[in-house]
Amino acid sequence: MTAAGINGKMNEFQSALGLLQLKHLHSAVDARRKIAQIYLRDLHGVPGITCFTTAPDVTGNYSYFPILVGPDYPLSRDGLYEKLRENGIYSRRYFYPLISSMPMYRGLPSAVSANLPVATRIAQQVLCLPIYPDLRQDELQRIIEAMQST
Predict the structure, then answer these.
(1) What angle is formed at CA 35 by the lines to CA 31 and CA 37, rounded to 5 degrees?
(2) CA-to-CA distance for 94 and 127, rounded, in angstroms?
(3) Closest to 124 in 3D by CA, of 87, 81, 88
(4) What does the pLDDT look like over 83-114, one tens digit per residue?
(5) Longest CA–CA separation in the chain, Å
(6) Could you give the CA distance from residue 58 to residue 36 in angstroms, rounded to a whole number?
(7) Element (H, E) at 66
(8) Edge to edge, what strands does the sheet with 92-93 contain?
(9) Which residues, other chains included, contact 105 with Cβ-Cβ below 8 Å and sequence gap of 6+?
(10) Angle at 74 between CA 76 and CA 36, to 5 degrees
(11) With contact defined as beta carbons under 8 Å apart, do 66 and 126 qualify?
């Protein structure tokens, strides 16, 4: 039988490293926030690309930078994913595959795509762009230019 599962255990060494990283948390989040602001500024107005903003009363951690690749963009989400990959840019498809398509759920009546139209659409459009504190400005511009030049 195939079933969903996860092993979220962390050993003592991993815990110690995690605690050490807390010293750098604020600077890492600040660096990610600056990268997110550049993505938002430079991808604003690119037809078919939807970026998400953080509500004013929310403090984000900027751990991901998800976008939606809509039908007005010249490439599908997977097409953009492949184009970026061919250029050495590693994005991630999230909610992919949609959990309802996994073997342990696919036979359930509730898993039929027609019952999940929003989840199905989002699963086909969402792409997370690279975002990490050490992402250099030239790398960031290369990502943006690859998306703008399509």
Answers:
(1) 115
(2) 6
(3) 81
(4) 999 999 999 998 888 889 888 888 999 999 89
(5) 49
(6) 15
(7) strand 65-69
(8) 49-51, 65-69, 126-129, 92-93
(9) 99, 111
(10) 75
(11) yes
**Token pair 């939606």 in the structure block, residue:** 68
Give the burial string for 57-85 (b: 16+ CB within 10 Å, else e).
eeeeebeebbbbbeeebeeebeebbebbe
Hey, how many other C-beta atoms are within 10 angstroms of the C-beta on 143? Answer: 23
DSSP states along 22-52: GGGHHHHHHHHHHHHHHHHHHHTT-TTEEE-
Q: Which residues contact 123 (CB under 8 A, 6 or more apart)?
A: 95, 96, 97, 98
Instruction: Give the model confidence (pLDDT) of 16-72 as tens digits.
Output: 999 999 999 999 999 999 999 999 999 999 999 999 988 999 999 999 999 999 999
CB 127 within 8 A of CB 80: yes
DSSP code of residue 97: S
Start-to-end Cα distance in the chain = 44
